[in-house]
Design brief:
- This protein is 28% helix and 24% strand.
- The protein is α+β, with helices and mostly antiparallel strands.
- The longest helix is centred in the C-terminal third of the chain and has 21 residues.
- The chain is flat and about 45 Å long.
- It starts with 9 loop residues before the first strand and ends in a 20-residue tail after the last helix.
Length: 173
């Protein structure tokens, strides 16, 4: 990202835990694709702590989600630039979600050069079991409230509405 950033490239992906679908070979391909796509920010799910360390060794600034599974699977938010203030919530909204591995929300301010200024990135991972729609709705509300509080308390600037596609600091695609 240049010092006069006018756009930010975001990527989110469930990389699938390494125990599925030939995880080690898939991670080699994913690493090549991440390099090719040139994203500035990553919101990744089903990563391992080792995956996070590989990202850090590659120059990424990595923030882990607040909860990880016993097997070491979780989620991360990563950026090419250092993050500012961060907040998180484990999204333990009912008794059932207290026992759900690695759900949570992470919000981080990312200071960018003008004209963009500081933006707020929010990476939300709700509980996944079938039949838990009520919990996912409560978790979505908790994540939205965390984002609102963080924006009100911090340096994040309002992001103008943009049409679908690539966001830019000038509103152009």
């Amino acid at each position: 990202m240049s010092e006069t950033a006018r756009c930010i490239r975001l990527m989110t992906m469930n990389v699938l835990a390494p125990s599925y679908a030939d995880g080690s070979s898939r991670r080699v391909v994913l690493a090549e694709e991440l390099q090719r796509l040139g994203a500035d920010v990553l919101a990744l799910q089903e990563v391992t702590r080792e995956d996070a360390e590989v990202l850090e060794r590659s120059g990424w600034h990595v923030l882990p989600h607040p909860r990880w599974s016993a097997e070491g699977v979780g989620a991360v938010l990563a950026a090419r630039r250092p993050f500012g203030r961060t907040v998180s919530d484990t999204l333990e909204v009912t008794e059932r979600t207290v026992h759900t591995d690695w759900c949570g929300v992470l919000a981080a301010e990312l200071p960018l050069p003008e004209p963009m200024g500081t933006v707020l990135l929010v990476h939300h991972k709700p509980s996944w079991p079938y039949g838990w729609e009520h919990e996912r709705e409560l978790q979505a509300l908790a994540a939205a409230r965390l984002a609102e509080r963080t924006t009100a308390e911090g340096a994040s600037q309002h992001t103008p509405d943009h049409p679908p596609g690539r966001w830019s600091g000038t509103g152009q695609q």
